[in-house]
Amino acid sequence: MGRDWESHVYFEHRPLTPALVEDVLRRLAGAGLRLGAPAGEDFPALRGFRLDGSGPVVIDAEIDELLRSRPPPVGSGYGVLPLLVQRPGLSGEGFASLTFARPDPATGLDGATLVVDGALFRSDEEAALDAAFAWFGVLCESLDAAYGWADWETASFLVAAPSRREVRAGSLPRLMRFNALGRGLFASLPAGAIERAPRLHRAGDLVIFERPASEQALST
To answer: For residue range 99-137, what is the model confidence (pLDDT) as tens digits?
Structure first.
């Protein structure tokens, strides 16, 4: 099984406007994830951006179609935004990717997924987890998450993360390694989950936290 690190965010449906996409990417860049591809690799979605010193600028007015709503068939690499890891405390350059899911008409929730190469965690896992928590927080805050989770790729096979339907119903049947909860999900929290959290961040009505180490057996 793979060991990439995955972050998933559910948020209320909205168009992917240039302003929204630029804001998400600039905030990620401030936390050490810069839009750009490894040398020699081609990502079609990059053609919709101009990259300069002030950050990425959307130059394709149909950015929503470019990233998530183009009808099939679509080409290889459709909608994938490559990101280079450039953060103090992490050795070398790593690679990540950001994608936006097609809207879910049944729940009205959109989705975004950030995947980070697991190799980034090998030399200093705690520093990499600190970075991953910061990136998760940026993504959840910038998209005003209804719910978000982050964990190893293996956890996707071992534990079924809450679905958009469960989140819309206000149900949280299980916690993942990192979690982001809007106020509507607070009632689903197990007693003491936040008080024991190794990592915790509050942003308005959003609470972002790590599950206590004693409860992480299925994540690793």
So the answer is: 999 999 999 999 999 999 999 998 899 999 999 999 999
Q: How many domains does the chain contain in total?
A: 1
Rounded CA gap, 193 and 195, in Å? 6
Residue range of the domain that includes 87: 5-219
Flag whether pLDDT at 26 surpasses 90: yes
Phi-psi region of 166 (alpha: psi -120 to 50; beta: other; left: phi over 0): alpha
Cβ atoms of 173 and 166 within 8 Å: the answer is yes
Q: Do 71 and 62 form a contact (C-beta atoms < 8 A)?
A: no
Alpha carbons 60 and 110: distance in angstroms, whole number:
21
Q: Roughly how many angstroms between the first and final C-alpha of the chain, as a whole number?
A: 12
- Residue 155's SS3 state is helix
